[in-house]
Write a structure and sequence with these properties.
The complex is a heterodimer of chains A (153) and B (134). Helix content of chain A is 66%, strand content 0%. With 153 residues, chain A is mainly α. Chain A has a single domain, classed as 3 helical TM bundles of succinate and fumarate reductases, CATH 1.20.1300. Chain B is extended, with a radius of gyration of 20 Å. In chain B, 15% of the residues are buried.
């Protein structure tokens, strides 16, 4: 708090009038704030989207680790040439991991973009932007699949 | 925003919301972690787009792809790779912290955990820089 800041002190009684997006009141209660996503996420769109972002983030950790190890750490000089990329993608498990990475990274990125826009757009604009983001995400996934199939065939 | 609000007023509101990100007052460690998480997220999205575009060179066969390997192995690219790894590591570790926070884990130690995330990011990125650039 600074001099001249007239936001309410003590227990948070609601969003202060005129508070800007992103303002998070300091926690002053006896227990840390707890968001139970298992209950909260069941009902609200925001909760479900957040859960989706957390799940895709967890999947990303696995798929990205596999990708970095296989494509860079195990490759001579850290990079695979064209033939080595094809050899790698022809292994079913590797192909599944790469497609899983593609799907999870695009979904995570789309959800992240949307959550960024929540702070700056109104409801109707956000709905339109969400549609555009979803369409771009689906197009990017289709492009990735097309690229994989084209390269392998 | 209702339909009767004029465009200049709406633009002013959007500008005010964007300018809020440049306001350093009233910030706590959690906000800085949130802002850094968002910044690294946007950087990684840009990288994802570039990566998908570059991968299209695989369609051109060895001539197209193998020519790029020389560029990928150049010093500026390797330095950019290490910065990218730092962004990935911070975003991933901070994401784990936030996910744990959702279930009430670590809520009492937010500042300490953020410092731990930053230290771990520096260590892992430093190790990656040594492995890549050495």
């Amino acid at each position: 708090m600074t001099a001249g800041d007239d936001r309410p002190m003590g227990r948070f009684l609601g969003r202060p009038a005129g508070a800007d997006p992103g303002f998070v009141p300091p926690h002053t209660g006896p227990e840390p704030h707890r968001l139970d996503v298992t209950r909260r996420g069941a009902g609200s769109l925001a909760g479900r989207l957040w859960l989706g972002q957390a799940v895709t983030g967890g999947l990303l950790l696995v798929f990205l680790a596999v990708h970095l190890v296989a494509q860079h750490l195990l490759a001579p000089e850290g990079l695979r040439d064209h033939a080595a990329v094809l050899d790698y993608l022809r292994q079913p498990v590797a192909l599944a991991a790469e497609i899983g990475l593609l799907a999870s990274v695009i979904a995570h990125a789309c959800l992240g973009m949307r959550s960024s826009l929540v702070d700056v757009l109104g409801t109707s604009s956000l709905r339109r932007a969400s549609g555009v983001i979803a369409a771009v995400g689906i197009a990017a996934f289709a492009y990735g699949l097309w690229l994989t199939v084209t390269v392998l065939t | 925003m209702s339909a009767h609000v004029s465009t200049p007023l709406a633009a002013a509101g959007l500008f005010r919301r964007l300018a809020y990100w440049l306001e350093p007052r009233w910030r706590d460690p959690g906000w800085w972690a949130f802002a850094l998480n968002r910044l690294t997220g946007h950087i990684l999205i840009l990288y994802l787009v570039l990566h998908l575009v570059v991968l299209s060179q695989l369609v051109d066969g060895p001539a197209g792809w193998d020519r790029l390997l020389g560029v990928f192995g150049s010093r500026p690219f390797l330095v950019a790779d290490t910065l990218l790894i730092a962004a990935v590591v911070f975003h991933g570790l901070n994401g784990l912290r936030v996910a744990a926070l959702t279930f009430g884990v670590g809520a009492r130690h937010t500042a300490s955990l953020i410092v731990a995330v930053l230290v771990a990011t520096a260590l892992i990125a430093g190790l990656a820089a040594w492995a890549i650039l050495a």
